[in-house]
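Fresh eyes needed here. Have a critical look at this protein's tokenised backbone.
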Amino acid sequence: MARPFLEGNRSDHLRRTDRRAVRATDVPRRPVETALFAARAGNDVYCDNSSEANFTFDFPVGVKTMSLMRTSNPALNASVFQIHDASVSTTMTLQGTAIKAAILLAIVVAGASFTWFQTMQGFAAADVAVGQVANVPPVVYTYGMIGMIAGLILAMITIFKPAVSPYTSPLYALAEGVFLGGVSAGFEYVYPGVVPQAVALTFGTLATLLTAYATGIIRPTENFKLGIVAATGGICLFYLATMVLGFFGVHIPLVNQSGWVGIGFSLFVVVIAALNLVLDFDFIETGVTRGAPKYMEWYGAFGLLVTLVWLYLEILRLLVKMRNRD
């Protein structure tokens, strides 16, 4: 519960209507100066006992405030930085986040390898020729469903409780690996070479955008963030509607097919998924700058993994559509 830090007179605060609006450029950069500045303007200021940087300002009605961060990734949003325990002696670093991300990717590969070989053995036992559509071994469905459901549950836990991310993130990576291994093996058996292409394009996109962000070629402005968030939300709603309609036997034509409309739609989704990586980089950099607690390294790596999994699946889907068109 936030306690009053510097509190003005509430009745006087409501009576004064001629107070000038506080502009972002008027506010000093350092937290303590910001608090004193707001207090001098007659605003109520609260401190949440978590860190010097966490202040809440009760500005008059009509004062425009700027959002510190906007990202379409549900795992990465500014609210997680408000849960900051001052007892944490170490803080988030870029190097630490990169190491955690590498660990999570290694776990994904380990989990995927297991179901990959299980799937390939199932196809071999059924004596199915490579490149031919066949019944997927039942064990693959079992592993796939377990991985997908477990991954969803672990993702929700991590999003709503970032402090447990050092424990749930590796488990999430393992579950996603189990799920992706079966899906990838199935597509690889029917479309030989498509999985290596999807993996190469995914990490190539990651490297390209990371370089562009690090060198300042790409910087997410507020309008840029708003556009990506809106596009991602629209895609999610479309996928949700497609899934619900599918239960009733209704299928949306063209978009899910291998024609030019379907390929164009998949290409659009791939671009949006890739640009979400820029928002993830911005989130991680902001966490480091604001001195987020050490466990946020795992949380940032987890959010980055969520985007990478989505990007990989969309690239895989795009390549399959292009193969079918040939």
Q: What stands out?
A: The chain has nine helices and three strands. Residues 70 and 226 are 7 Å apart (CA to CA). Residues 94-125 form the longest helix (32 residues). Confidence is low (pLDDT under 50) at residues 1-69, 83-88.
